[in-house]
Specification:
The chain is mostly helical. The radius of gyration is 26 Å and the shape is globular. It is built from 12 helices and no strands. The chain has helices at residues 15-33, 36-45, 53-73, 77-119, 137-151, 153-190, 203-206, 210-237, 245-265, 269-274, 276-299, 303-309. Helix 3 (53-73) packs antiparallel against helix 8 and helix 8 packs parallel to helix 11 (276-299). It has one domain (14-111, 173-309).
């Protein structure tokens, strides 16, 4: 979620201004739906081990500074309301992750206690027929191993098919968000909620309080650094299991359309410099999102390797 001060929306509608409005609206739609896929993924897995709490914490700090900057700068109530929404959404995801981490930690401790108790039990009754040398037992065991080897190729085929369906579903979700964002801008324009902002009004950005600008830079730095713990965690675990790919696809879409919305509005020096910290934050997080996409491609979710090893 990038600082949305520059998207605060004046004069005839030009093609560039219309594109700026559409891109800005798509960006907002991306941020609104952003955390939903990861919330669903955590719920399905009953676990939040895949996502880094440091990532979410730094991101939350970025949203807090974004909200503080919006209030300090006296931005329109809609912008402030969205910033508040972002903070609440962060808190919901963080609370869910903490809940699952605590729940699974307790479950793990109970299982380890049971394991210790079972180890102390007599070893009688643990032998199987393969150790008794019964006629045909070796033949049956060899047959079972060969059957298991033949079946080991099935999980990879199923996984590839499911992966293909997942990409199709994610692509359709991205297209849906784009349609919702574009439709939202069209409705806002037709009803007069959104009006074009003239280029000569760009001096408004330079009148922003110094403290609000500092908070803008702080939020950009937080957004830029938030993904680093997640990238490190993925590399360390060599897996992206538990992460929602759609979550990062929406993030990439939100950052790309956010930057496009700013640049299509104006490339005048003063306007560009006013929005530079958020442009840098958007560009940097896009690079980091691409890095995570590569990790998804290289590591997958860890299911394939475990299936083959079974």
């Amino acid at each position: 979620m990038q600082n949305i001060a520059a998207l605060a929306q004046g004069p005839p509608l030009t093609a560039h201004e219309a594109l700026s409005g559409v891109f800005g609206s798509v960006s907002l739609a991306s941020w609104i739906f952003l955390l939903v896929p990861q919330l669903i993924e955590n719920y399905k897995q009953s676990s939040a081990e895949g996502i880094s709490l440091a990532f979410l914490t730094v991101w939350f700090i970025g949203d807090i500074t974004n909200l503080a900057g919006a209030i300090w700068a006296g931005l329109v109530p809609t912008v402030i309301a969205l910033a508040v929404y972002f903070c609440f959404a962060d808190l919901i995801l963080i609370a869910q992750c903490v809940y699952y981490n605590m729940k699974n930690a307790r479950k793990s401790r109970k299982e380890s206690t049971r394991t210790i108790d079972s180890v102390e039990q007599p070893l009688l009754g643990r032998r199987d027929s393969s150790n008794l040398g019964l006629p045909g037992s070796h033949r049956r065991r060899s047959s079972a191993i060969s059957t298991r080897r033949r079946a080991s190729s099935l999980p990879s085929l199923v996984e590839e098919e499911e992966g293909g369906r997942e990409w199709v579903k994610n692509t359709l979700s991205i297209l849906g968000v784009c349609v919702v964002g574009a439709a939202g801008w069209a409705i806002a324009w037709r009803t007069g909620v959104w009006v074009p902002q003239p280029d000569d009004d760009d001096t408004a950005g330079t009148d922003m309080a110094l403290g609000a600008q500092i908070l803008g830079y702080a939020s950009a730095i937080c957004y830029l650094g938030a993904r680093i713990p997640q990238i490190i965690k993925n590399q360390k675990d060599r897996s992206c299991e538990g992460l929602s790919l759609l979550f990062f696809m929406l993030s990439l879409l939100g950052n790309a359309t956010y930057g496009a919305g700013i640049l299509f509005h104006s490339v005048e020096k003063e306007y560009f410099l006013t929005n530079l910290p958020w442009l840098i934050g958007s560009l940097g997080t896009m690079v980091e999102d691409v890095t995570i996409f590569i990790q998804f491609r290289v590591f997958g979710n860890g299911e394939h390797s475990s299936a083959v090893a079974a």
